[in-house]
Amino acid sequence: MEILNQWAFIGMFFLLAPILPAVPILLAAVISPKKPNAIKQATYECGVETVGDTWVQFKVQYYLYGLIFLIFDVEMVFLFPWALAYKQLDFFAFLAGLLFIFLLSDALVYAWRKKVLEWV
Q1: Which of 9, 54, 55, 99 could form a disulfide linkage to 43, CB 3.0–4.6 angstroms apart?
Q2: Phi first, then psi: what are they for 20, rounded to 5°?
Q3: Of 113, 119, 107, 118, nearest to 68 (Cα)?
Q4: Residue 45: helix, strand or coil by DSSP?
Q5: Which CATH number do you get for residue 69?
Q6: What number of other Cβ atoms are within 10 A of residue 107's Cβ?
Q7: Which residue(s) pair with 48 in the sheet?
Q8: What are the per-10-residue average pLDDT scores of the chain (120 residues)?
Q9: Does 118 fall in a domain?
Q10: Number of folded domains that form the chain
Q11: Is 119 inside any structural domain?
C-alpha cells in the first residue's frame, strides 16, 4: 500500500505539472487589456530607431560563444564544492569529478578544433 501512495504522488505531479504554468498564461490572455496600435507593434531596439529591415541574419558565432561560456560557468558551480570537499571524498567521487573535468575539456578541445573559438 505504501508503494501505491508513492506512485499516486508521482501521478499527481505529472497531472499538475502542465496545468500550473498554463493557468497564469491563460488568465493573462483572458484578463489582460487588448489595445493594439502601430507604436506597440513596432520593433524596439534599446530605444534606438530601427534602420532598415529588422529581420537580419544573426551570426551563430555569438550564440556559440555564449553557450560555451555558460557551459564553463556551470562547470564552476559544480567544481567549487568538489574542490572544497576534496579531502573528504572517496575514490568514486574523485573519479566522478575527474570524469566531469575530462568531458568538459574534451568539449573545449572539440570546439577549438572546429574553430568555433576564433573570432571572425
Answers
A1: 54
A2: -60, -45
A3: 107
A4: strand
A5: 1.20.58
A6: 14
A7: 45
A8: 74 92 94 85 68 72 82 84 87 90 88 81
A9: no
A10: 1
A11: no
